[in-house]
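Below is a filled-in request sheet from our internal design queue. Each sheet records the structural input a requester submitted and the sequence that came back. We keep these sheets so that new team members can see what a complete request looks like end to end.

REQUESTER: design group, bay 2
PRIORITY: normal
MODE: inverse folding
CHAIN LENGTH: 394
BACKBONE (tokenized):
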């Protein structure tokens, strides 16, 4: 008989953390209404509940407090009562890598011992945090390393907003007690949902997490500083406009259905025409500006002059910016990155047609900060370690 197989994602890291083992509920990620109900359920008088939510909310999301004892505008007995029933829990940093260019890449552990990544990218006028929405992905885009990993689970709203809290901890971006939280210059000023996973396949949690990030009495990021990237889950695009209202990016990547079917297989379900239909309505529904069309540059696959011309024809009438992404190779990937000259020629055609066509500069290359890479490295190490153990047992 062979030894029982250990599931890939259940590793030695599954020990519950303090608080969890006592069944305490995490307050991070609850909407205001959910927090109000939770406070009432532990005996907070209904009349006071809204005010208490406001106080606890500000401690968590404006001040970065994780211990109820520090919530000094609440009575001591009430702080103890909160502590008895709740925790303020954010993902744990497993590893952090800081690039020469200041990019920070975090590998984060969430409940169940799963891991996701977040990347902080400092720029002159802003600091952007790239966050994940799922562990793995159900989709199988052929150029994406995350696509080769099976979906393990959706992140909760708390784990989604928790990535922002962890990054602010690491950046030391919580105001000193007594200082107005709105005075701070923002190190973390923008969010992009471009990490692991398809955010529109985890819609409710992404929406709740982003609502918390936008709440004016908390992290208070404007909806124009949040960009959600989707591979093209057409039926959820209008809801994104109506219920989140953030900026939208779309992983377009091809100009014919034939090529897009192979690169972004969700195209077989909702093709280019259906996708463009939904995108046309987005700016009006969300009252926002341009849509970002992401376009990964793959040598000999989607990078010809004809592709560039077709692209500008397809998106005519949609306020758009086209973000050209040089392909980030990974071991075993079936593609190569287009040459710099080819990318520039492609960008030029788009620019001459009247669209902004920035080429995304690879950041944090020395720490493998391209989305998907750090997590995959760790998974590979784990797998081979397990293989070695299995062989030893046999
Ligand atoms: N699942 C969502 C968001 C995450 S991916 C989506 O697909 O839109 C963020 C962006 O990185 C997407 O445009 C994705 O297509 C792109 N991407 C994925 N793997 C890549 C790679 N190896 N090189 C360059 N871009 C990649
Ligand atoms: Fe999933 Fe996006 Fe990667 Fe496609 S590109 S496999 S949707 S994470």
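RETURNED SEQUENCE:
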């Amino acid at each position: 008989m062979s030894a029982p197989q250990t599931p890939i994602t259940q590793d030695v890291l599954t020990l519950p953390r303090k608080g969890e083992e006592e069944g305490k509920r995490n307050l991070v990620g609850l909407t205001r209404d959910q927090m109000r109900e939770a406070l009432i359920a532990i005996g907070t008088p209904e009349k006071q509940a809204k005010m208490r939510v406001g106080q606890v909310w500000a401690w968590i999301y404006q001040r970065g407090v994780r211990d109820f004892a520090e919530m000094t505008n609440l009575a001591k007995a009430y702080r103890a009562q909160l502590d008895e029933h709740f925790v303020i829990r954010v993902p744990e940093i497993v590893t952090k890598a800081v690039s020469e260019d200041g990019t920070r890449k975090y590998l984060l552990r969430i409940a169940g011992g799963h891991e996701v990544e977040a990347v902080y990218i400092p720029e002159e006028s802003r600091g952007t945090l790239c966050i994940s929405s799922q562990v793995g992905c159900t989709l199988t885009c052929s150029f994406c390393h995350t696509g080769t990993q099976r979906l393990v689970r959706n992140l909760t709203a708390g784990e989604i907003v928790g990535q922002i809290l962890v990054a602010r901890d690491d950046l030391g971006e919580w105001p000193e007690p007594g200082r107005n939280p709105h005075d701070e210059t923002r190190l973390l000023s923008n969010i992009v949902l471009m990490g692991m996973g398809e955010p529109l396949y985890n819609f409710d949690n992404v929406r709740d997490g982003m609502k918390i990030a936008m709440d004016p009495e908390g992290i208070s990021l404007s909806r124009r500083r949040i960009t959600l990237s989707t591979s093209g889950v057409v039926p959820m695009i209008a809801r994104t406009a109506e219920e989140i209202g953030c900026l939208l990016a779309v992983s377009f990547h091809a100009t014919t259905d034939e090529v897009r079917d192979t690169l972004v297989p969700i195209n077989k379900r909702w093709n280019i025409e259906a996708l463009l239909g939904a995108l046309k309505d987005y700016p009006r529904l969300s009252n926002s500006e341009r849509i970002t069309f992401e376009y990964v540059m793959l040598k000999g696959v989607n990078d010809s002059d004809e592709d560039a011309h077709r692209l500008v024809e397809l998106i005519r009438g949609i306020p758009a910016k086209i973000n050209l992404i040089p392909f980030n190779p990974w071991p075993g990937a079936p593609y190569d990155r287009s040459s710099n000259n080819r990318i520039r020629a492609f960008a030029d055609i788009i620019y001459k047609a009247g669209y902004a066509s920035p080429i995304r500069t690879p950041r944090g290359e020395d720490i493998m900060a391209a989305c998907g890479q750090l997590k995959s490295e760790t998974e590979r190490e784990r797998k081979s370690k397990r293989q070695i153990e299995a062989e030893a047992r046999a």
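SHEET NOTES:
- The longest strand covers residues 114-122.
- Confidence is low (pLDDT under 50) at residues 1-15.
FILED BY: M.R.
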